[in-house]
Amino acid sequence: MAGNPMDALFELPKDIESIGLAKFDQLIAQGEILYEEPTCKSFEGEFRVHFLISPSTAKKPILSKAEQAPAQAKKRSPFVDPDPNFVLGSVGPEHTLIFNKYCTTCPMYLLHTNDYRPQRDGPTDADLKAIGSLFSAFDRQKNMIIFNCGADAGASQGHKHFQMFPRPELGVMFPDAMALSLGLEAGATVSTLKSKYEQLITAMNTACPPKERALDYNLVLVNRWMAVIPRTHAGLDGKAQTNSAGMMGWIWVKNEAEMEFWKSLGVAKHLTYLGVAA
């Protein structure tokens, strides 16, 4: 019996991970990529979270919700004609893998659609196939992929893109603490990813029925689990914003002052405000 065509991965260079690390270091040395070694600090409130203090992200441009609307986002997109120095390679016919210029981790990649697609559009079969191909070519035990679906989910650009970077140590993100496994260990097919994703989206829409429009959300994928988190706010009046990683308890901030602001809000209370109360 023929397999599912969706599970036939795109072929990538076997040494793409080592090539990427070498080029990443080169771009840092040339001052093209902004990266400083971050500091991680744990905080015990209602539950433990981990703040990753990363000064190199302070200059990262973040488009407003209005600027991420399709008419504006297409004009402002940095992905329609990416800098060749930042391109690592194609991932199938519809996607390109590039380096992130404003890095919280080392390294940090962006997988974007070649043609403009709105960031609020959920992952397509082609997107999931590209993601599965990356997970196969890179060390899936060490890396994670996130998707911030919409401005309220912490997206900084309106052109569809996914991010891949080294995951934190086990236990930092909430699902790790629960020893959660959704059958996504090595060998999981792209069709399995699609099935799990669709199950989670259905569960989200059942628990949080869309009103005027579908909710923005975060998608997090590691080798053992996948999570979808509904979002209603990116931050509070432009402050204390977070993306997929932050909603998992790994909160990226620019400096200690921003971390202290999170604490003053009450971390659990603020995460509830950013998401949806149970």
Word description of this protein:
One of its GO terms (molecular function) is ATP:ADP adenylyltransferase activity. Residues 49-168 form the Ap4A phosphorylase 1/2 N-terminal domain. Residues 187-276 form the ATP adenylyltransferase C-terminal domain. The protein is an alpha+beta fold. The protein has one domain: 2-Layer Sandwich (HIT family, subunit A), CATH 3.30.428. The protein has 8 helices and 10 strands. The strands form 2 sheets. Strands 3-4-5-7-6-8-9 form a 7-stranded antiparallel sheet. The N and C termini lie far apart (44 Å).
Short description:
The chain contains 8 helices and 10 strands. It has 278 residues and is of the alpha+beta class.
Domain count: the total is: 1
Helix content: 25-40%
Question: Care to count the β-strands?
Answer: 10
- Widest sheet: strand order? 3-4-5-7-6-8-9
Radius of gyration: 18 Å
Under the CATH scheme, which class? Alpha Beta
The tally of helices reads 8
CATH architecture: 2-Layer Sandwich
**CATH homology-level superfamily:** ATP adenylyltransferase
InterPro entries: Ap4A_phos1/2, Ap4A_phos1/2-like, Ap4A_phos1/2_N, ATP_adenylylTrfase_C, HIT-like_sf
Domain Ap4A phosphorylase 1/2 N-terminal: 49-168
GO molecular function: ATP binding; ATP:ADP adenylyltransferase activity
GO biological process, one term: nucleotide metabolic process
